[in-house]
Amino acid sequence: MGGRLVLVLGIMMVIFVLSTIPAQPKPPGSGLRALVAATPPMAQKALHFVVYMVLGYAWARAFDQLALSTLTVLVMASSLSAGFGALIEWYQLRIPGRYGTWRDVFIDAAGALLGSAGAVLI
Questions:
Q1: Total domain count for the chain?
Q2: pLDDT at residue 28, rounded to an integer
Q3: By residue range, what is the domain housing residue 99?
Q4: Kindly report the CA angle at 117 between 7 and 45, in degrees rounded to 5?
Q5: Which of the two residues, 29 and 114, has the higher pLDDT score?
Q6: Quick one: which of 14, 54, 82, 120 could link to 109 by a disulfide (CB 3.0–4.6 Å)?
Q7: How many CB atoms are located within 10 Å of the residue 55 CB?
Q8: What gap in Å lies between CA 109 and CA 103, rounded to an integer?
Q9: What's the 3-state SS for 19-68?
Q10: Which of 60, 25, 53, 58 is nearest to 39 (CA)?
Q11: Are 46 and 97 in contact (CB under 8 A)?
Q12: C-beta of residue 115 within 8 angstroms of C-beta of residue 64
């Protein structure tokens, strides 16, 4: 689980960093801040789904090395991924220009479940 867990934690770190960048670029046109501000809302929703699908897949593959049932791996991987998404949404309420929504929590959870299911079925 060691190397795969490092991968999971790396993915989570990238998600955290990208999710906590204030939406309003200061100064204008500065790297990642400008990219976040310029990303259309529908593209952001699609990114939520895909990123949490990757995270769910990575968690499931990390748990795959343990002697756990398929259902246990699915529940743990999707729950950890979706829970992380919910925490990020909550944290975004405190970041200037960002907001957290229940819709994003559900999109994150759907992506996490699909990614986890894909990992256990492969």
A1: 1
A2: 57
A3: 2-121
A4: 75
A5: 114
A6: 82
A7: 27
A8: 10
A9: HCCCCCCCCCCCHHHHHHHHCCHHHHHHHHHHHHHHHHHHHHHHHCCCCC
A10: 25
A11: no
A12: no
Exposure string of 58-69, with b = 16+ CB inside 10 Å and e = fewer, is bbbbbbbeeeee
CA 3/CA 62 separation, integer angstroms: 8
Extended strands (E) in the chain:
none
Q: Which of 118, 92, 84, 89 has its CA nearest to residue 9?
A: 84
Query: How many residues in total does the chain contain?
Result: 122
Q: Is the pTM of this model over 0.90?
A: no
Structural tokens at position 73: 């791996």
CA nearest 36: which of 91, 97, 110, 86? 97
Q: What is the pLDDT of residues 80-94, one digit of tens each?
A: 999 999 999 999 999
- Cα–Cα distance, 60 to 57 (Å, whole number): 5
pLDDT in tens, 12-44: 999 999 888 887 655 555 666 677 667 788 888
